[in-house]
Amino acid sequence: MREPILRYSMAPEKEYRYCTKDSSGEDSIYSCRRKFDDGDMLSIILISVPDIETVIEKKQFTSAGSYDYETLKDLYGLLSPKVPAEERIKFYYETIIALEEKIAKLQLALQKQ
What we know:
The chain is of the alpha+beta class and 113 residues long. Helix content is 42%, strand content 14%. α1 crosses α2.
C-alpha cells in the first residue's frame, strides 16, 4: 500500500516520569506523567503529492492509508500543480474565513466564562 502521508516523530527512549504537587501538597492532576506527554520533541511529515493525486483522481480510497478523504482532498487542492491557481487562492480565502469565524466563536465563548 502506498501511503500519501508519512509521519515520523522523535521522543525520549525512557519514560522520564515526574510527580507534581498542588498548593495543598496533594498530587496534582498532572501527577506521574511522562515529561513529554504534551508533545514530541521533533516530528517530520512527508507528503507525497503524486500519491494524493492518485487517491483523489482515481478515487482509490484503499490507498488513502489512515487519512480520511476530506483531508487528502484539501491537501490535493493546496499542493497539486494540476489545480489552477485561482482555485487554490479561493481555497486559501475560504479556509482563512472559516478559521476566523471559529476564532471569533471561541473568543466569544471565553468572554462569557
